[in-house]
Design brief:
heterodimer; A: 82 residues; 5 strands; B: 762 residues; alpha+beta; Aldehyde Oxidoreductase, domain 4; five-stranded mixed sheet; 28 strands; 28% helix; 24% strand; globular
Chain lengths: 82, 762
């Protein structure tokens, strides 16, 4: 099962402080839905304000980004810029 | 990634052709936001709060409306009172209720300069006279300017419904602290126990404005059926369209947004201030309405970046290995939540491979203008503190500052404290280029000092559209959806020309309005050459496929038997047949007979932006009589991926360094006791001018990003990250004084020198 790490404290208010968990989702879209089912509100929070970094490459707003077992999957705050 | 053309075979990418917008700009023909006019146009002006914090009891506009020449007046009552709704749609999280209330105050004014009402009249003078006739009754409230004062118990509360997010249990009392965020890796406490040497510091930075030369400006027109046109100086025409629609409650399709030539943005034009108000006035007046901010309004009412207080602690072994790092950041957000505290928490230590890190950040509101993005939002502030502390650590360990960074520098496989593992990065290559540059070993005279500092930025991709059209004569039009603030027209044209194999002079790039090209996220985050460039490159590849198909039709052979080389179609081999090559112009001429126009538009959401790193070297000389700091020599080294047009990349690096030097030495907002800004103009808010600076030497290190067809990384954000610490570290070297508070202005440095001399004498 893919192992997901939440970067920073943002997700903690939904997960009761958990920063890592195993998921069954295999894409970012399915991850959003799974998180919302397990921790109501977290999926929306992830969708609005977070990006996923898979093996060091940051994907923003990419539902199809694949989550493979053994990959490093980190949810980080979404990045903007000037 | 397979580059579509091997790097060694590039003919146009990496060269320095004349910029496509050059003639218009040097001859004054370019049309900026304030240059636009329409028949029947009238003028809009904004009434702004004289108070830093006050409740609006009433607004009486009747006398203003009665003034001859006045066509319309609007207040917040003319806009829908939209609910709190956060979305990530611009250059950061956006709450549309806050955006609306920043455009026109509803219940309270939250800073001096906060817009309260607007007038449209036949002339600017009539509009200004009408503003005088608007009667606003205020209940003045206590205000708070400083970030730590705003966090203190008993501080005046700006928003009664703001409860700090990120604290458990959930607070029961409102606070000016909008959010607490934290990032951790390893065990910082344990790491500090292992340390042989510890350095600590408390640093402060002031809010600084993006100081774009062109003030905010727009022209709005609304037809009787509700169809609207908005011409503005903006970093994103699609952003203007979406934000205006949201704030006004209109449908997006009813607004057509045109990006004018833009006189600088640097992140400050990723929002709307005037545009929804101008549209509302135009609808009411039935006439086109033009609004242009004065410089004073730009300072008082448009976003600077955050000021901050940062505490840093570093622990290292005697051999230079850093074993623990801690940082606490308090960022001003201005009147509404939303400082760049997240990137601030992530960027400071992102350059280093550290085992134990603890970072906590606070997003704090106070009675100042709402902050806006400014190049690498949040990163320069945190890096001023961290890179100053790194310099102190190098001194304490008696290790060369670049060597210390090389020992601890992030490399492929380094895991950051925010969880992401670096991949395909060029930090060590950047440090090596800085260390081996002649500047770093050049001798200094007595009284002079040299500082180095580094910087990091993520860079981003995102949604972009690009179109390539083959015209009837074989010339090429390239259309993109991003305002050109850093040379994107040139880079789009060059990438298209490279793929098509045609001279750059035959490719004309233009920026389309919202009805002329598909959606494109705004110009910011150093994303356009990467993401929009990817769209244009793909569109050009599809055009090449079409050209091959058309040649195949003309020759009556299969498309697979055609190859494209140097702008011409050739038979792919002897079996394909013996045909004279067909030029692009020859194929274009027969487009009507072979299937119609040849063109392609690609829309995509680009992923895989590669982060960038910089290392700056600064030499200074300090005048001990006046405290003036002269920048003697400045070299900025940066990993740029692949420079499409090197001159523009060098310009980005030089511009970022110049802005950072101003941030370091002069720029600050000065408030009086009533919370009113005292230096809202370029005479008193001093940005560096050409005579203040030496030539800034830009050194490009090219470590290609393998996720872009030409290896592009964003380049516009990184160069503003290192300068403040580079300058402060040079001053430290020249004077022996660590100056932790920006700006290091002459009076401040003179006072510190005097105090140090006094202490020595005593």
């Amino acid at each position: 099962m893919p192992h997901v790490v939440f970067s920073g404290s943002d997700a903690g208010r939904f997960t009761g402080g958990r920063t890592e968990l195993e998921v069954t989702a295999t894409t970012f879209r399915r991850l959003v839905r799974e998180l919302d089912e397990r921790f109501p509100g977290l999926g929306e929070r992830v969708e609005v304000g977070m990006a996923v970094a898979i093996d060091g490459v940051i994907y923003q707003d990419a539902y199809a980004a694949p989550l493979a077992e053994g990959s490093e999957i980190v949810l980080i705050p979404k990045i903007g810029g000037g | 990634m397979n580059y579509i053309i091997p790097q060694s075979e590039l003919k146009i990418v990496g060269t320095r052709p004349v910029r496509p917008d050059g003639v218009d700009k040097v001859t004054g023909r370019a049309t900026f936001g304030a240059d636009m006019t329409l028949a029947g146009m009238i003028w809009g002006k904004m009434l702004r709060s004289p108070h830093a914090h006050a409740r609006i009891i009433s607004i009486d506009t009747s006398k203003a409306l009665a003034l001859p020449g006045v066509r319309a007046v609007v207040t917040a009552a003319d806009f829908p009172d939209i609910a709190s709704e956060e979305a990530f749609v611009g250059e950061g999280p956006m709450n549309f209720r806050d955006l609306s209330r920043n455009c026109l105050a509803r219940d309270k004014v939250l800073y001096e300069g906060h817009a309260v009402a607007a007038v449209a009249a036949a002339s600017q003078s009539v509009a200004e006279a009408a503003l005088e006739l608007i009667d606003v009754t205020y209940e003045v409230l206590p205000h708070v300017i400083d970030v730590e004062a705003a966090m203190a118990a008993g501080a005046p509360i700006l928003h009664e419904d703001m409860f700090t997010v990120g604290i458990e249990p959930k607070p029961t009392k409102p606070s000016n602290v909008a959010k607490r965020v934290a990032f951790a890796k390893g065990d910082a406490e344990a790491g500090f126990r292992e340390a042989d040497v510890i350095v600590e510091g408390r640093y402060t930075t002031q809010p600084v404005h993006q100081a774009y030369i062109e003030p905010h400006a727009c022209l709005a027109q609304v037809a009787a059926d509700g169809q609207a046109h908005i011409y503005s100086s903006t970093q994103g025409q699609f952003m203007v369209r979406a934000y205006c629609a949201k704030v006004l409650g209109w449908e997006i399709a009813d607004i057509r947004s045109y990006p004018m030539e833009i006189g600088g943005g640097f992140g400050g034009k990723t929002l709307v201030y005037l545009e929804p108000v101008a549209l509302a006035l135009a609808r009411k007046a039935g006439r086109p309405v033009k609004m242009v901010m004065t410089r004073e309004e730009v300072f008082r009412a448009s976003g600077p970046t955050s000021g901050a207080v940062i505490e840093v602690k570093l622990g290292a072994r005697r051999d230079g290995t850093i074993v623990a790092a801690r940082e606490v950041l308090k960022y001003q957000a201005g009147a509404f939540a939303g400082s760049p505290i997240g990137p601030g928490c992530m960027c400071g230590f992102a350059m280093y491979d550290l085992p134990n890190v603890d970072v906590v950040g606070y997003d704090v509101v106070s009675n100042r203008p709402k902050v806006a993005a400014y190049r690498a939002p949040g990163a320069p502030i945190t890096s001023f503190a961290v890179e100053s502390a790194m310099d102190d650590l190098a001194r304490k360990l008696k290790i060369d500052p670049i060597a210390l960074r090389e020992m601890n520098g992030a490399r492929d496989g380094s895991k950051t404290h925010y969880g992401v593992t670096h991949r395909d990065i060029g930090f060590l290559a950047t440090l090596e280029a800085a260390r081996s540059h002649p500047h770093y070993s050049a001798p200094l005279k007595p009284g002079q000092g040299r500082g180095v500092a580094c910087g990091f930025w993520f860079n981003i991709g995102g949604e972009s559209s690009g179109a390539v059209h083959v015209n009837e004569d074989g010339s090429i039009s390239v259309v993109s959806g991003n305002p050109d603030i850093g040379g994107s027209r040139a880079s789009m044209a060059m990438m298209a020309a490279e793929v098509l194999g045609v001279p750059i002079e035959h490719v004309r790039p233009i920026v389309g309005d919202t009805a002329s090209i598909g959606f494109s996220h705004l110009t910011g985050g150093s994303r356009v050459t990467f993401a929009t460039g990817m769209a244009v490159t793909q569109a050009a590849e599809r055009v090449v496929d079409q050209l091959k198909q058309r040649a195949a039709q003309i020759w009556e052979i299969p498309p697979e038997a055609v190859e494209w080389k140097d702008g011409k179609a050739y038979p792919a081999g002897l079996n394909a047949g013996a045909f004279e090559p067909l030029t692009l112009a020859q194929i274009a001429l027969k487009a009507g007979r072979t299937g119609g126009p040849i063109s392609s538009e690609v829309t995509l959401n680009a992923q895989g932006a590669g982060p960038g790193f910089g290392c700056h070297i600064c030499d200074v000389e300090v005048d001990r009589e006046t405290g003036h700091v002269k920048i003697l020599r400045y070299t900025a080294v940066q990993d740029v991926g692949k420079a499409i047009h090197p001159s523009y990349v060098e310009g980005q690096i030089q511009g970022g360094a110049a802005q950072g030097i101003g941030w370091a030495l002069n720029e600050e907002y000065i408030y009086d006791k009533d919370g009113k800004m005292e230096n809202a103009g370029f005479l008193d808010y001093r940005v560096p001018v050409a005579s203040d600076l030496p030539l800034i030497e830009a050194v490009m290190v090219e470590v290609p990003n393998p996720r872009h067809p030409f290896g592009v990384r964003g380049v516009g954000e990184v160069p503003i990250v290192p300068p403040m610490a580079a300058v402060a570290n040079a001053i430290r070297a020249a004077t022996g004084l660590r100056m932790p508070d920006l700006p290091i202005s002459p009076p401040k440095l003179r006072a510190a020198l005097d105090a140090a001399a006094g202490a020595k004498a005593a």
